[in-house]
Amino acid sequence: MTPMDELDRSGGASAVNGMSEDPELWAHVKSVFLDALDLPEHERAAFVARTCAADPRLKQEVESLLRSDEVAGGFCEIPAASLLATDADSTDIASPQLEPGAQLGPYEILEFVAAGGMGEVYRARHTVLSREVAIKIVGRHIADDPARRRLLREARHAATLAHPNICTIYEVGDSGTGPFVVMQYIAGRPLGALVRERRPAVQDALSYGVQIADALGHAHRHGIVHRDLKASNVVVTDDGRAIVLDFGLAKRVETDTAESRDTTLTAPDTLAGTLSYMAPEVLLGRPADVRSDVWSLGVVLYELVTGALPFRGQTQYETSSAILGDSPRPMSGRIPLLLRLVIERCLMKDPDRRYQSADDAKAMLEAIRRRRAWPLVGPLLVSARRRTVYVLSSGAVGIAAVAYAGPRLYRRFAQASAIHVSTLAVLPLENATGRSDADYYADGMTGDFIAQLGTVGDVRIISKLSAARAARSETTIQGIAKKLGADVLIQGSLRRATDRVAVDLRLVQPATGAVLWSDHYERPAGDVLALEADVVRTLAAVIRLNIRPESREQLATVRAVSPEVYEEYLKGRYEWNSRTSSSLQRAIDHFARAIALDPSYAPAHAALADCFNQLGTVMVGSGSPTEFRPRAAAEAIKALQLDPRSAEAHAALGYARHYDWQWAEAEKEFRRAVELNPSYALVRIWYANLLMSRRRMGEAMRQVMIARDLDPFSLIVNTNVAWVLDFAGRPAEAVEQLTRTLELDSEYVQARWRLADALLETKHFDEAIAQGQRALVESHRSAPALAHLAGLYANAGAEGKAESLFRELRARTRTEYVSPAAIGGVFLSLGARDSAVYWLEKAFSERSNVIAYLVVNPGFAALHDDPRYHAMAVKAGLQ
């Protein structure tokens, strides 16, 4: 019997001094004593001196208990505590109810073990089975029926649990004088005592943590929350098995019925549990749930690896304040980072940001224990990579995958983490499949890696097109990195089989050519999105990205996708990148097939919205905005209903809203897209166009320059930089910019179109016409290019040539859609103001994208004194 056992039997170590006659003093002594035990040994004396300064007798009694605890090796812990709830207001027990040799059914009482506020515990032996057990009875000082009913309910709860790390309930009986509970008798040492004696090695701490989490997970799956998990409620046996005791405060998580409302050993409005282990939401009066147990698990883990508690104060009030408002005290750098991340996740103040089940925490700990995982913050998900640990997913987050990196990450991480990364480039994945028809797959996965990395942190991620262009034009790693301004490069290859996808990746430091990290990822084709999430989470860890909270959730909630759906989506994106009317139509066909196969696949809806947006424009459009823009908005909204965190969907909706003159709504969508993915260059361009149409030229220029930093070799980005320069009244700079852009690709029609306009502004008519002529050829004599060249001829004074092209253009209106804005522009260039206004009003009626730039486009300068022009500008919200 320990001194604490004797303490609870007699009412205190100093009962001879009359303290047993002063329950209030005893309660105070025990409260201070237990608070002192929560502190490291070297801090206890000062704590007691401060707390008991005004009461010498209190100080004497607490110091006496602490000395006894040292002698007994931790007598406040009760190894056979079984399911005994030891309340702070323990009641005086003058003597045990049962003496050795007494019979309780088939059980012979061997000895009294412990007593607490609600009952007494004895060691006993089954006379037939010769099995040693622990027996708990209601204390005789507790005569009310509700207390007895609570004991039975507690036992019934625990009796539903059959787990090697949970103290087993064998029987619930009634001796005639009251109920009793028969349970497993556990020989071992309390975890708290072990920690105070000598901090466990990391591997032992992980082993204990895995076992405790496994026990909690089992209870949670049976609808039971422990509510009082702490180091003193875990016993470690000689063979290293951790047994969770004391479900005395456990409650069943169930619907609010008459039975369920009375299933706790605590009274209504009373906090359940031990303060230092209590979750913030419980302190605030909210009901405990499985995540509250996860918090307590985090406290126990913290105690295991540091020997102290994460939150403490000199008083209970200070401790409560620390739990509610402070971060956990920093853990030593000697504790593995992976383990620190798991503990910190358990100790998140917001329950929604913790692991959503003990199973999740257990899987992470198990992965670390086996030294085969690099887990990142975020809910645990299903992994199917080679050499990875398979874990259960959290039902709260759905189907997804946690990032587990292979052992090489451990070998490489120290070197990689020393590199300061401000700019990262993902080079195109090599198609190692051996078939050219898999090019689109490698291209699409490269784009997905870049897009997802752009959402997670504050590192600049170079766009796919720029990375690909640099990789084609340079022969060395150093040259590619210099051209892109990248600190590190990611290289890799992809192999695609019928039902499998495999990716090999490596992180390279350009200055030395050293491979900082490499790994292999392989999954069934249906789990390709989870594979991508694996890669992104691992890379985020390797380069120490500061992952945004929303991004953690987005990376965590990765769904499965049919291989056929994903292939159609990638083929569509491949076509979309070409940005011609015919390629956009092919892209639409692919996206539509993906949606037909899986209507819940949000990326396909967002991509379809992009196609409809482009087909409703003047330059590459093949139909009226009245046909395509509502379809674009509808698809973007569908995508957001399926995935509210889709930057692409927000951007597509912002694009549609911009040209519908819903200025505030458009800006909100663009800003949200930028927030979700700051490295998404295209949304920066679209946002700049909105700002430009609102005459906010300085802001527009900032956005296009950020886009150019992200995508320095993008044709569309560089073209839009020039467009902003031109509309800002800097056409000469626009000419220089567009000349450099065409050096990247001399066949990019939009750049040549914009160059002709800028040359026209600088009065270089012949050069402008030459560019317009090339644009007409390169566009295969498209209707917009015909209108554009006709306008150039007219402005240059070559009205005859302009009229000839204009007749051809108008003849084509009988067989194809021609934008009224294009026709109105030619009339304006020819000086036919009334006809120009007539067609511009038609363009206004269909909300042509040209109208959004009515007040900044220098081509409309001839109408600035026309009241009809001003009326349109006012109606569009531009004036």
In words, what does this structure look like?
With about 900 residues, this protein is of the alpha+beta class. About 50% of the residues are buried. The strands form four sheets. The chain has a six-stranded antiparallel β-sheet. Strands 12, 13, 14, 15, 16 and 17 form a six-stranded mixed β-sheet that branches. The chain has a three-stranded antiparallel β-sheet with strand order 7-9-10. The longest helix is centred in the N-terminal third of the chain and has 20 residues, at about 200-220. The model is unreliable at about 1-20, about 70-95, about 250-270 and about 370-420 (pLDDT under 50). The radius of gyration is 36 Å and the shape is elongated. Among the domains are: about 5-70; about 105-185, Phosphorylase Kinase, domain 1 (2-Layer Sandwich); about 190-370, Transferase(Phosphotransferase) domain 1 (Transferase(Phosphotransferase), domain 1), CATH 1.10.510; about 405-560, Rossmann fold (3-Layer(aba) Sandwich), CATH 3.40.50.11830; about 560-680, Alpha Horseshoe (Serine Threonine Protein Phosphatase 5, Tetratricopeptide repeat). A hairpin with a 5-residue loop joins strand 9 and strand 10. Helix 19 (about 565-575) runs antiparallel to helix 20 (about 580-595) and helix 33 packs antiparallel against helix 34.
